[in-house]
Design brief:
Elements lengths: L11 E9 L2 E8 L5 E7 L6 E2 L4 E2 L10 E10 L2 E9 L8 E8 L6 E2 L28 E8 L2 E9 L9 E9 L2 E9 L8 E8 L2 E8 L4 E7 L13 E3 L3 E9 L2 E9 L8 E2 L4 E5 L5 E5 L2 H5 L2 E4 L7 E2 L6 E6 L2 E16 L5 E10 L3 E8 L5 E7 L4 E9 L8 E10 L7 E9 L2 E6 L2 E7 L7 E20 L16
Antiparallel strand pairs: 1-2, 2-3, 3-4, 3-5, 6-7, 7-8, 8-9, 10-11, 11-12, 12-13, 14-15, 15-16, 16-17, 18-19, 19-20, 19-21, 21-22, 23-35, 24-26, 25-26, 26-35, 27-32, 27-35, 28-29, 28-35, 29-30, 30-31, 32-33, 33-34
């Protein structure tokens, strides 16, 4: 994982990732100054080390002399192009425009000086500085996309007409032989103030458009039969659950990856982290699905079967609780109240998977990082409504008036393939937690509250069984802070 943190814990901003000759290149903003675009590299797409900074704000009087915002890096004809957002001091930073920088090696960048740049809106389809009731102008977050021999830029823009707080749209600019053509919005849903960090891709015969939404800090998506055709949304349009933001895609061989940064603790001015990527797929109806990153399998150092996971122990000594261990199966339950049924994890980082079968009603789920008193992360499964929630739950020694921790960190919906059984896959890597249900990633987050050694199941007036369980060990994460001598491309 990667945070880019120095003096501040929340320095990483919007991101773009490009893969070149087997090396993953991450470019990101530096928050809150926005004075340069940082560059980090990786060989696995998970662990990153900083290298030379890519781009800096312009000199006084230049169009980008105030701040740099969201960028997108692509390879074109053996060179690299970085489309980026710039702000100018004389505008007091309220007008965003789009510029271009060029590189031959992803390390040294030169800002393009053609009259074409910077690109700004004209009062045909989008708000301008003069036609802007909000009093600050969105024309930013470029994403370059080639389609049928033509080059396009997607832009986080705002339509000229409509309720002021609902004008957010995905603007589009066509570039042909250094001639700009502003086109009508690719998407104008009449819902959001802005649709930030838009990106588009084709997958399994459809085009999909991603956008990050400030109102609820979620990444949503829309689909269309063709790139320039009308976009629609499914009744479930959230791709990444709350806390995940600024999603951008990159092709990694046969795998289409999605990267984003995560707001720890649900606060935009708290720690921001780049979690591991997920893979994009679709179901039979064309709905986007998140799959676990393929490189997790390459990282496994040892696998234990359920019978080799050790003795199960309880945490609360609930007199109504019971459990039995037999070959390949653990059955546990409690007639009244909670009980935790825990194993001791053999390593700090692991992947745990298995088949969970539910008998009757009641509360149930997984627990991880649990200490001897049962403080830890609780992952609930509501099989009646298809909802899973991860909660940090335990004792708070810092506040004797509210001496408990009880925070719902993230919630997502899932689909049951049978009435009573589901397959889960829990990844615990450093401070990263990822949960897949029936092969689809549903929870993906960073949290720093608990580090206990117990993992297992919990019940409350329920009976459950665990079968086919495997525990895969993972190595510890690499340290992201390294000297310049250790980083090279």
């Amino acid at each position: 994982m990667y945070s880019g943190s120095g003096f501040s814990d929340w320095e990483i901003g919007d991101i773009t990732v490009i893969i070149h000759k087997g090396v993953y290149h991450l470019f990101h903003l530096i928050i809150p100054n926005h004075d340069y675009i940082a560059h980090a590299i990786s060989t696995d797409g998970i662990s990153w080390k900083r290298t030379n900074n890519a781009l800096f704000v312009g000199h006084p009087g230049e169009w980008d002399d105030d701040m740099l915002w969201t960028m997108h890096v692509v390879e074109k004809a053996g060179r690299f192009e970085m489309y980026y957002t710039g702000l100018q001091r004389k505008d007091r930073g309220i007008v965003s425009r789009v510029g271009l920088a060029i590189s031959d090696d992803l390390l040294t960048w030169t800002k393009e000086q053609k009259d074409l740049y910077p690109i700004e809106p004209k009062g045909i389809y989008y708000e301008t500085q003069e036609q802007n009731p909000r009093k600050w102008l969105s024309f930013r977050d470029p994403f370059q996309f080639d389609h049928k021999g033509d080059s396009y830029l997607l832009i986080a823009a705002r339509a000229l007409h409509g309720p002021v707080s609902r004008r957010g749209c995905v603007g589009i600019v066509k570039i042909t032989n250094d001639v700009l053509q502003l086109m009508p919005p690719l998407l104008y849903p009449f819902v959001y103030d802005d649709i930030e960090c838009p990106c588009v891709f084709e997958l399994n015969g459809r085009f999909y458009l991603l956008g990050s939404i400030r109102e609820d800090i979620k990444v949503r998506y829309w689909f269309a039969p063709g790139f320039l055709e009308e976009y629609h949304s499914f009744h479930e349009d959230v791709l990444l659950p709350p806390g995940n933001y600024a999603a951008r895609t990159v092709q990694d061989g046969p795998h289409l990856l999605v990267y984003n940064f995560f707001y720890a603790y649900g606060q935009i001015n708290a720690l921001r982290v780049l979690p591991p990527p997920k893979q994009l797929s679709t179901d039979e109806r064309g709905r986007l699905l998140l799959k676990s990153y393929y490189r997790w399998e390459e990282m496994i150092t040892h696998t234990a079967t359920q019978d080799d996971m050790g003795q199960c122990t309880t945490r609360f000594d609930n007199p109504s609780a019971f459990f039995s261990q037999e070959k390949g199966k653990l059955t546990c339950g409690s007639r009244s109240g909670y009980e935790l049924f825990c194993f001791e994890k053999p390593a700090a980082c692991f992947i745990w998977e298995g088949i969970l079968t539910v008998e009757g009603m009641g509360k149930l789920g997984l627990v991880c990082d649990a200490d001897g008193d049962g403080n830890g992360y609780f992952i609930s499964f509501d099989i009646a409504y298809g909802e899973t929630t991860i909660r940090s739950w335990g004792f708070n020694p810092l506040d004797n008036k509210q001496n408990f921790i009880f925070n719902d960190i993230q919630t997502a919906l899932f689909h049951m393939k049978s009435e009573s059984s589901l397959h889960f896959r829990l990844i615990r890597y450093g401070n990263y937690i990822e949960l897949s249900v029936n092969g689809v990633v549903k929870l993906t987050l960073m949290d720093y509250t608990f580090t206990g050694k117990g993992f297992g199941l919990y019940t409350a007036s329920s009976v459950i069984s665990l079968q086919g369980s495997l525990l895969h060990r993972l190595p510890d994460p690499e340290e992201e802070y390294a000297s310049p001598e250790e980083t090279h491309v």
